[in-house]
Amino acid sequence: MHMADALVAPVVAGTMYVCSTAAAGYSVKKVRLENDSKKIPVMGVMGAFVFAAQMINFTIPGTGASGHLCGSMLLSALLGPFAGFLTMVGVLLIQCLLFADGGLLALGCNVWNMAFYGCFLGALLIWRPMMRGGISKGKILAGSVLGCVLTLQLGAFSVTLQTLASGITELPFSAFAAAMQPIHLAIGVVEGLITAAVLIFVYEARPELIWDAHAGSKEGRFSFKKTLAVLGVSAVLIGGGLSLFASGNPDGLEWSMEKIAGTAELESGGGIYEAAESIQNVTSLLPDYAFKDSDTSFGTVFSGIAGILIVVGLCVGICYLFKFFRKKKQYE
Amino acid sequence: MLVYVIYLNFLERKSNMSKINSAIYEIHHMDSLAARNQWVNRIHPLVKLIITVFYIAVVVSFSKYNIAGLAGMIIYPVVIFQLGDLSFKDSIRKLRIVLPLVCFLGIFNPFFDRQIVTNIGGLPITTGILSMLTLMTKGVFSVLASYLLIATTSIEKLCYAMRLLHIPAIIVTQVLLTYRYITVLLEEANRITQSYTLRAPNQKGVHFKVWGTLTGQLLLRSMDRAEKLYESMSLRGYAGEFYYGNKVPCKGKDYVYLFLWMGLLILLKYIPVITIAGNLFL
Amino acid sequence: MSHIRIEVDHVSFSYEKGNDIIKDISFSTDSHDSIGLIGANGVGKSTLLKMLVGLNLDFRGSIRVADIPVQKHTLPKIREKIGYVFQDSDSQLFMSTAYEDIAFAPRNYGLPETEVIRRVEKALDAVGIPHLKDKQIYKMSGGEKKLVSIATILSMTPDIILMDEPSIALDPKNRRNLIHILNQFDHLKVIASHDLDMILDTCNRTILLANGEIVKDGDTKAILSDQKLLEQHGLELPLCM
Q1: Predicted pLDDT of residue C34
Q2: Contact at 8 Å (CB) between C106 and C155?
Q3: Which of B13, B211, B271 would best serve as a mutation to test chain A binding (most A beta carbons within 10 A)?
Q4: Residue B206 is part of which domain span?
Q5: Residue A305 above 60 pLDDT?
Q6: pLDDT given for residue A285 in this prediction
Q7: Which residue has the higher pLDDT, C56 or B240?
Q8: Which alpha helices (DSSP H) does chain B contain, by range?
Q9: Do B149 and B264 fall into the same domain?
């Protein structure tokens, strides 16, 4: 599920980086507020644990296949959503650099698709409400499976959207989604079961290790509102894309053809061949098709949202830099 | 998609132990590459990070039919492989994880996008084939760029670069600690799974019955380790902040390196160098 | 330096109520003592060491380190004076390179970087491993890690050194090296160990623990040659005797 760099356009990558950075910044703030100096060594070792656990093949009974642990849901259940999120960021960064599992440019996307949904949505929207009134083995099972399934479904869907927004594949949306979602449903169920098994073991052996979702409930309510706000933003981003598709041609295949080749027909007549010939005359090597851009209208919407975010980000960044340099001057 | 999942499962036919062992090997290997004293290794880490990200961004920004322009981007990996005295074969291994998905997405292009562009020796080249090739090339180039970064820059130096970018200390510290303990925990996991495998010889992976206990044991041991780690840190004055001392100065050559590459990459984006070179010979 | 002593006065400790691990222990040290803490498995050696640095605070009685009582708010001051070497080097060493780990403590105490560099190099020299300065921890052997662990506390310039099973997992050559280094330290040392031969070689005074109590406290040679005493408490004569 890790996205490679080749699958994202710079605009999409940049947008997701901004989103992930926002989530990370918020998490850093929340973790600092907890003022628990023990958290950092625990996060570090847990990050390494997730790495090690991901190497284990969990054989699924009945099939020859094996399942794996992604970790975001597990981490959240142990460390809380914010520390869990930051831990996953570290894990994904190291995976990307050392094992080429996910690209450096696509890191923003991967953090969002895998860490954000698992830690924020999974922990805050599913785990916490479920554990109201106490934890039990059954609740752990339900919470883990539900959380993992939701996380992976959203994650897979986001991958689909991001890939399509980047315009790198001709595969129509419906076909892509139809392939991604069911597979990730299965993966999600398996991961949920593995997570549940581990959490139940921990719950029985050392229950104090499970994240106390209802400690400081006042603060909890506040962050729930903020979570809703974040959800709202992501809904806009996803929804914006969805609405485009909804408004387009119901047949995904025809839609994509229209947008790219300028015609709804696959095999066309002389017009195309003429164009090809004239181009062939220009150079003997592979022709340069600069005029055929990957600019789909989907990409335009993304550019719009991204543009606003980038400009705002730049302004904030410049102001920050300005303040930083002013401070430096003051101390010289 | 099913084929892809089956492919991934096939990759995992390696037993638990050899997978963990190869992960440990990979970490040690990349580390020793980065620790060498090649010229490229000594360039300031922030400069290398910026160039890598910029390179990937430029590669990815090529339009999907522009295989000619994209091909020009091969200059960067070629140069750095040379300057860094690195083996190309070594980097190819890295491709096996992400390339399949890239290929999967690309392989459909020729079916949907069938405008014929030209004929090479009787074989029709469609725009679909072009976009597929472009996609795969982008995939290869970006993985190579990441590989070159980590093969010439250690994680510690990269974390230093991240600190310079004002990435919060919490995240950077967490990355460093995770990296420090990966090999320790991988070996711990190795021991646990070895002990399991030796007593369950017909299993390739971990059986359903012990999903929880085996992983749970590893988790508890990790937690204990984290506790001891915290104690150890507290005993040496830790109170929540990490201080990093070593500053790596940015020398003149680092700036020159940075601007040269940025300039060249921008040039490559707009001038199809390969095409021009090819035309010169006709 | 003359007032650096440890005073343990009628101290008891338990993890769970009613099950005392340490039962009414009292002893005090002189500033240049080298004390070996011996006893069978589970008698409370590690627990006692941890209490001296405030890692187990729920004890009854009084512990004073350099005349400061061991309490929650005095811990930072006390920990500046004591260097504690863990049994497991992977718990002691958590930075990426030896240099970073040895520099950790001085940096936390707010020393300027020039002083940090000086201390690191001095610590590396004291333990005889200047060549390991930039080596990565996870690549090191057990012996190298143990030496770096000792260097990490030396850079704190402690007055007291506590060690928990330092010679475990060391091969004979590294072990001999460790003994040699320990004998060069002038600090007040308390070393918990099963390695009675090492205790014989490095400690002038020995405290024998059994069932959470001090059974014997005195001259090392006298205690470690008393076969009956040792066997009564789950130990044996050192191999060299």
Answers
A1: 93
A2: yes
A3: B211
A4: 169-235
A5: no
A6: 32
A7: C56
A8: 2-11, 16-35, 45-61, 67-71, 75-83, 88-92, 95-107, 109-112, 127-152, 155-164, 169-199, 211-235, 252-270, 273-280
A9: yes
CB atoms within 10 A of CB A104: 24
Name the token pair of A197. Answer: 């098994």
Do A294 and B63 lie within an 8 Å CB cutoff?
yes
Residue labelled with tokens 């096996």: B96
C156 inside domain: yes
**Residues B122 and B67 placed together within one structural domain of the fold:** yes
Q: Which of A238, A24, A2 is nearest to A105 (CA)?
A: A2
| B31 belongs to a structural domain | no
A35: amino acid identity, one letter: N
Share of chain B above pLDDT 70, in %: 85
Q: pLDDT tens for residues C28-75?
A: 998 888 999 999 888 889 899 999 998 888 889 999 998 899 988 898
pLDDT digits (tens, 9 = 90+) for A122-171: 888 888 888 877 788 888 888 888 889 999 999 988 988 888 888 777 77
Total CB pairs under 8 A between chain A and B? 349
Of A41, A55, A170, the CB nearest to B108: A170
CATH number at residue C35: 3.40.50.300
What is the pLDDT, as a whole number, of residue A24? 93
Contact yes or no for C77/C68 (Cβ under 8 A)? yes
Per the CB < 8 A criterion, the answer to whether A297 and A244 are in contact is yes
Full set of structural domains in chain A with CATH: 5-247 (1.10.1760.20)
Tokens representing residue C92 in the block: 């002691």
Quick one: how far is CA C19 from the chain centroid? 25
What percent of chain A has pLDDT above 90? 16
Compare CB distances from B102 to A7, A93, A272 and report the shortest one's residue.
A7
- Residues, chain A, total? 332
What is the number of structural domains in chain B? Answer: 2
For the stretch B137-177, pLDDT in tens is: 888 899 999 999 999 998 888 998 998 898 988 899 889 89
Range of the domain at C74: 6-13+22-232
The token pair at A169 is 């594949």
When divided into structural domains, chain C yields a total of 1
The yes-or-no verdict on residue C191 having pLDDT over 80 is yes
pLDDT of residue A296: 37
* Residue A58, strand partner residues: A67, B206
Contact partners, residue B141, CB within 8 Å, separation at least 6: A6, B55, B56, B59, B70, B73, B74, B77
What number is the average pLDDT over the span B89-117? 77
Residue whose entry in the numeric block shows the structure tokens 């991961």: A191
Torsion of the alpha carbons at B24, B29, B34 and B38, rounded to the nearest 10: 170
Going by C-beta distance under 8 Å and a sequence separation of 6 or more, which residues neighbour residue B226?
A41, A42, A44, A45, A46
pTM score above 0.80:
no
Q: Do A90 and B205 touch (CB under 8 A)?
A: no
